[in-house]
């Protein structure tokens, strides 16, 4: 398989980034060092090339009906220029993806734009098209992943950095709002969204002009390594780790995003989720902090202090901000509360740990 | 990028270095290795008195992004462990051939696989 490359690939190569395969894309994983990049975002600002994220638009009279059918949140509450987080579930309520759905600003050719995870754009376009055809809905679904570059600028200094390059009033742009506007002279969509827990923006622009936007935002370039440690400190989900239809089949309730499920709307998976909502999920995602030395990693077992297996780590790292080893893990609901004493098995050695609520940081 | 490969050391293909003086050896990982790993956050080493076997793993280095075994360039008995690495694992990044040393070993035997500085330089270039 040939890896897809982001439009800024050559720019990152010149910056001496190291690369990794992520969701079928060859993406920069590290520019300076994960710690340096992480700290820049928490204290100043950093920029990320997230062009591996998918972009799918939905237009036409039934655009809202179709998108409502396939996402757990209620898209009908969105006014033009507003966005929401939601899950995409199958008939059993199992998460296939998580996504941000944007209702595009007035005057846009398409009504909705949603962002599936890297490598999911083809499958999600098919999903929307087949649901449309099955229901006889009037909507145009277009996979525009190759038509957009996506650049995130995140951190306390992000508003000032972006304000210097756009006429859009960022003070009037609330969290999860999106506006049309030029950035460094390039027609873009500017959304106040992100994956770091810091104030910040995600900018969608044409790939052949992305270099102007990237270059104008003068701050630390950051790779997927720092993106992962930043999101993990916030307890945000990563597709393929905290949920995967085959390797980690989970409902939004298990994954801790039950708040995105609106059971008063009609969507694929709703009936199954209604049953689970009534009883509560058997297992839940919880934060874990190691007390002993060691680094928790994906797949490590979690046990009781007596050594009885109760779950496994989905993501873990040494938190650069806290200087402590942190992780996310699925455990039985009885353990899914803060300050339970557990063990994480690191190379055969049980390490003392305790459960924590997420986010690990106050933001 | 070119990495420091001191001429007074010998190397393993798996990126460990050994500094032999008489019958003792100092052991660590190379500048190239620490750069590949990125920010080192945890080092697991044997205790004083432990026996090493040349070519076998004796410890673990974890960076934010990766876990890596460390292999013994010599067989012998561990006579000193760099305790600073416990609280300052970043010494491996900052000074891999100096303050980031890992173990001192009383040599019983050397690995057959030790590379000269020139041979190791060829490998990483």
From TrEMBL, chain A:
It catalyses: N(6)-[(R)-S(8)-aminomethyldihydrolipoyl]-L-lysyl-[protein] + (6S)-5,6,7,8-tetrahydrofolate = N(6)-[(R)-dihydrolipoyl]-L-lysyl-[protein] + (6R)-5,10-methylene-5,6,7,8-tetrahydrofolate + NH4(+). InterPro entries: GcvT, GcvT/YgfZ/DmdA, GcvT/YgfZ_C, GcvT_bac, GcvT_C, GCVT_N, TrmE/GcvT-like. Residues 284-362 form the Aminomethyltransferase C-terminal domain. Substrate binds at residue 202. One of its GO terms (cellular component) is glycine cleavage complex. The glycine cleavage system catalyzes the degradation of glycine. The glycine cleavage system is composed of four proteins: P, T, L and H. This is Probable aminomethyltransferase. It comes from Haloarcula amylolytica JCM 13557.
Automatic annotation (TrEMBL), chain B:
Residues 24-106 form the Lipoyl-binding domain. Binds 1 lipoyl cofactor covalently. Coiled coil: none annotated. Its cofactor is (R)-lipoate. Keywords: Lipoyl. It holds the Pfam family GCV_H. One of its GO terms (cellular component) is glycine cleavage complex. It comes from the Archaea. CDD domains: GCS_H (cd06848). The modification N6-lipoyllysine is found at residue 65. InterPro entries: 2-oxoA_DH_lipoyl-BS, Biotin_lipoyl, GCV_H, GCV_H/Fam206, GCV_H_sub, Single_hybrid_motif. One of its GO terms (biological process) is protein lipoylation. Belongs to the GcvH family. The glycine cleavage system is composed of four proteins: P, T, L and H. The glycine cleavage system catalyzes the degradation of glycine. The H protein shuttles the methylamine group of glycine from the P protein to the T protein. This is Probable glycine cleavage system H protein. The gene is gcvH.
């Amino acid at each position: 398989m040939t890896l897809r490359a982001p439009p800024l690939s050559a720019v990152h190569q010149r910056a001496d980034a190291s690369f990794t395969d992520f969701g079928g894309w060859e993406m920069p994983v590290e520019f300076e060092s994960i710690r340096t990049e992480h700290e820049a975002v928490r204290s100043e600002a950093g920029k990320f090339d997230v062009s591996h994220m998918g972009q799918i638009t939905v237009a036409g009279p039934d655009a809202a009906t179709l998108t409502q059918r396939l996402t757990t949140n209620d898209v009908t509450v969105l006014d033009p220029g507003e966005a929401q987080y939601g899950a995409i579930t199958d008939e059993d309520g199992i998460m296939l993806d998580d996504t941000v759905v944007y209702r595009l600003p007035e005057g846009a050719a398409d009504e909705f734009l949603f962002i599936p995870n890297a490598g999911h754009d083809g499958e999600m376009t098919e999903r929307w098209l087949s649901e449309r055809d099955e229901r006889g809905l009037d909507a145009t679904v277009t996979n525009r992943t190759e038509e957009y570059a996506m650049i995130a600028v995140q951190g306390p200094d992000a508003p000032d950095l972006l304000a210097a390059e756009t006429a859009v009033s960022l003070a009037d742009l609330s969290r999860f709002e999106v506006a049309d506007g030029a950035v460094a002279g390039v027609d873009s969509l500017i959304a106040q969204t992100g994956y770091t827990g810091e104030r910040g923006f995600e900018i969608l622009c044409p790939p052949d002009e992305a270099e102007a936007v990237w270059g104008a935002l003068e701050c630390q370039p950051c790779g997927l390594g720092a993106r992962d440690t930043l999101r993990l400190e916030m307890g945000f989900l990563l597709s393929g780790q905290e949920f995967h239809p085959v390797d980690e089949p989970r409902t939004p309730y298990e994954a801790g995003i039950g708040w995105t499920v609106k059971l008063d709307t009609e969507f694929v998976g709703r009936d199954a989720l209604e049953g689970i909502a009534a009883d509560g999920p058997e297992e839940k995602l919880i934060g874990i902090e190691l007390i002993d030395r060691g680094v928790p990693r994906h797949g490590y077992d979690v046990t009781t202090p007596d050594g009885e297996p109760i779950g496994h780590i989905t993501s873990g790292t040494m938190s650069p901000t806290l200087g402590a080893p942190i992780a996310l893990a699925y455990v039985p609901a009885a353990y899914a509360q803060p300050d339970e004493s557990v063990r994480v098995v690191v190379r055969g050695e049980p390490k003392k740990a305790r459960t924590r609520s997420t986010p690990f940081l106050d933001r | 990028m070119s990495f420091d490969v001191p001429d007074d050391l010998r190397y393993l293909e798996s990126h460990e270095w050994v500094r032999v003086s008489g019958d003792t050896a100092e052991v660590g990982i190379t500048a190239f290795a620490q750069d590949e790993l990125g920010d080192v956050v945890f080092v697991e080493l044997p205790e004083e008195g432990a026996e090493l076997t040349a070519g076998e793993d004796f410890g673990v280095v974890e960076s934010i992004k990766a876990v890596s075994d460390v292999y013994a360039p010599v067989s012998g008995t561990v006579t000193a462990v760099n305790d600073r690495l416990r609280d300052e694992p970043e010494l491996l990044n900052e000074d891999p051939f100096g303050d980031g040393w890992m173990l001192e070993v009383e040599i019983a035997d050397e690995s057959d696989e030790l590379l000269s500085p020139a041979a190791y330089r060829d490998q990483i270039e």
